[in-house]
Design a protein that fits this description.
By secondary structure, this protein is an alpha/beta fold. The protein has two domains: 248 residues, Alpha/Beta hydrolase fold, catalytic domain (Rossmann fold); 148 residues, no CATH class. 34% of the residues lie in helices and 13% in strands. It has a nine-stranded mixed sheet with strand order 1-2-3-5-4-6-7-8-9, sandwiched between helices. A hairpin with a 7-residue loop joins strand 1 and strand 2. The longest helix is centred in the middle third of the chain and has 16 residues. The radius of gyration is 22 Å and the shape is globular.
Length: 444
Amino acid sequence: MNDEVLAALATIPGLTVDSEKPSNIPGTRFFVLRFDQPVDHHNPNGPRFTQKIALLHRSFDGPTSFMPSGYAVNTRKATEWEVTRMLQGNQLYVEHRYYGESVPPGPPYEHLDIEQAAGDHHRIVQAFRPVYTGRWISGASSKGGMTSIYHRYYHPDDVDGTVAYVSPSTYSASDPRYVTFLRQVGDPTMRARLTAYQRALLTRREQIVPMMVAEMAEWGLTYDIVGADRAFEFGVLEASFFYWQFCPVDFCEPHLPAPNASDEELLHFYIDYLGAPFNYDDETINVYYGPYFYQSATQLGHPRFDEAPLMDLLRYPGQDKAENLTPVPVTIPFSHGLMARIEARTRSHGERMLFIYGENDPWSTNPFDARAKNDTFRYFVPDGHHGVHIEDLPEDDRLHATSRIFDWADVPFDPSAARTAAPLLAPEVEEDEGPGLRFRLPPR
């Protein structure tokens, strides 16, 4: 049987169709692809690796969503980005180099930087655009959104528009602006309750740490790299960050334990609502998020956390840094000024871009700016967290953002048929880079 889709994919240089899987999304076909890439784009004749891509196919002439993941890509089932669903288009979901199955040969992370990743994405777009001839809209959430912004910084004309969700710009390996944000977010009563909860955990660490270790062992998780006591303290220090990142106030506030709650209640919230212990275990560092911490220590930056209210109870002050959470030593200095240059260039010259943020999300501490004259806009979801979508925006903002996407994609837009905004709920936990709830780490 003549298969037009497979025949067209076969014409793309460097592309291999690994498999086609049943698609759970009506009207699409779901393929797992492998794309040949140079390890070093400055040495295209040097070593190579293959990059995994998940393709949702609808039509060759329709719009295409280009999603550069910030991490690994799950291909156990098809997933559909909000913009893809809006436009009823195709979707390329690309695994980031050094994550998942897209690991170059050679020393770990030798060529893990944003320019090399942007080179990966540039080559993919150039290879696929002759086959998928409609308009292209890039973007994703969190680190994936950051990656799409960096792609536009190095290759501004590759796509016709970009939609980046909850994507921060962090200036240093210990950026103090996150402390300022967390001292102002929400209301003073809620912040005081969180501090009291953090202090209660640290005061009872001798009882609670063994309980945490035992419960995490049921997940098969260990803490040999960081140490259980230090991992516990890091999680407590970041508890307010976790809370505002992923806890809608109406959902989490009733469950926040008082300082005199039982050890079990304190730990239950720490694990099941904040997901704190899943950020520092050996599997997270060695398998899933080691490259992220390395990137944070060298280019992307990392938050500083507010130690002042807890200082008398801390055993490891100043140690909660990305460089202490990598599976290999960080041997190169942080690229100071790089993120600020990208931010300034994006503000001045970034065209046809949308930035969507959650008002309460700590990752909105330093949002990318936008200029209407560049057809670029920024929106905040009131009381929003790290899982916000366009559908969560106030009505006027939602319709405006949606109209820009449809215009860039050259698809007619009917405001009367646009979806009514959904209530802001706790984000679903997706089965992606690995088991466990990993909350603060910017997912996908």
